[in-house]
Amino acid sequence: MNIMHIILLKFGPNKSDATNHMAAHNAWIAKGISDGIFQCVGSLDSGGGCILAKGEDRETIEQRVKKDPFVQQNIVEPEIFEVDVKRTSPDWTHLFAPALN
Known about the structure:
Structural class: alpha+beta
Number of domains: 1
Low-confidence stretches: none
Mean pLDDT: 93
CATH architecture: 2-Layer Sandwich
Radius of gyration: 14 Å
Helix content: 25-40%
Number of strands: 4
CATH superfamily: Dimeric alpha+beta barrel
CATH topology: Alpha-Beta Plaits
Number of helices: 3
C-alpha cells in the first residue's frame, strides 16, 4: 500500500492566540519537513492549514499532530484522512517508487 495522510488544521476556539504560538508551530512544521514526513504544507482558503504527509502509519501521524503547538493550545482542530494512493503525476512518482512504476 502507498499511504499518504491529508491533515486539515481548521481554526478552533483559541484562534486569536495563534500569533503567540506561531514560531513554535512553524518549528513543528519545519521538523516534519526535515524528517521527510511532510511533503507539502499550505494554508486553506477558509482559514487554517493543510499538510500532505507520507512515510508514517496513522497512529504515528496522530502522535506527531498532537505535538503541534497549535493543536495543544486549541488554536486548530486537526482532521486526518488516510489515502491509499493508486496513481500519481510523474512529478510525484518518487514518493512511491517503485510501487507505482
